[in-house]
Design goal:
This protein is an alpha/beta fold. The relative contact order is 0.15. The mean pLDDT is 95. The structure holds 2-phosphoglycolic acid. The site of 2-phosphoglycolic acid has 14 residues, from strand 8.
């Protein structure tokens, strides 16, 4: 399976011109490593322009509204995203849950709309405090709420992004996690690895073993060129959701290169 590297630009950059330039550099990086799936998720206003500069890298978005169209001021629907050839949509990012009041119910509606219409949903889950009971309680609640009633056959378009809020680079007082490069005894004590196993267990319980094992789990939170291999190998993650470092083309190029060898 190819590693999946998603660039989450958040509300950056400030101008269309910078966005087009960043997309061009990201495309260049993606075209050098065909065994890595690279997704660029720019802000909504830049989607169309960024799309025209991508070939090897694919287009993603950072949010979606669950209805197809209608009186929903300020929202962008799944149908509109689909018409722009957006293939991947991030949902339930912690910044939306925290700053915009997005609830588990809203996240669930978004996931269902995406999966029902053939878009890939990148569902973000993750605890705010670093403590193992926090991790297990938060992840179980978020996964069960967002995925309740989802048909097993639709999970082929589901990706889980485990993003502990305490490790996101811009979160107040954040501390990046420090994954170990190799699996094994030390790996078992490690947060990304443990969370991965825990998420897999919940998915297998909800969708059965085969479907549960086929859902991609990726990591997010201060991922950079130096630590990405640790999350992919030691943490057994199948990709990364990259915020800050995706805005720095040289760093992002090194992340893709590292993911192509991990
Ligand atoms: P970060 O952001 O890489 O800057 O920590 C990741 C995310 O919030 O998706």
């Amino acid at each position: 399976m190819k590693n999946l590297i998603i660039a989450n630009w958040k509300a950056n950059p400030a101008t269309l011109r910078e966005a087009v330039d960043l997309a061009r550099k990201t495309e260049l990086a993606a075209s050098g490593h065909r065994n890595v799936e690279v997704i660029v998720a720019p802000p909504f206003p830049f989607l169309a322009a960024v799309a025209s500069g991508l070939k090897r890298a694919k287009l993603g978005s950072q949010n979606v509204f669950w209805e197809d169209a209608g009186p929903f001021t300020g929202e962008v629907s799944w149908q509109q995203l689909k018409s722009l050839k957006v293939g991947y949509v991030i949902v339930g990012h912690s910044e939306r849950r925290i700053f915009l009041g997005e609830t588990d119910e809203m996240v669930a509606k978004k996931v269902r709309a995406l999966l029902a219409h053939g878009l890939k949903a990148v569902l973000c889950v993750g605890e705010t405090e670093r403590a193992s009971h926090e991790m297990s309680e938060t992840i179980a609640r978020q996964l069960e709420a967002a995925l309740k009633g989802v048909k097993k056959s639709l999970t082929k378009n589901l990706i889980i992004a485990y993003e502990p809020v305490w490790a996101i680079s811009t979160a107040p007082g954040s501390r990046p996690d420090t994954p170990l490069l190799r699996q094994g005894y030390a790996g078992r004590a490690e947060n990304a690895f443990q969370s991965n196993i825990y998420i897999r267990k919940i998915l297998s319980r909800m969708f059965g073993r085969t479907a549960g094992e086929n859902i991609k789990i990726i990591y997010g939170g201060s991922v950079n060129a130096d630590n990405v291999a640790g999350f992919l190998t030691g943490g057994r993650m199948q990709g990364a959701l990259v915020g800050g470092a995706s805005l720095r083309p040289e760093e992002f190029t090194r992340i893709i290169a590292s993911a192509s060898h991990a």
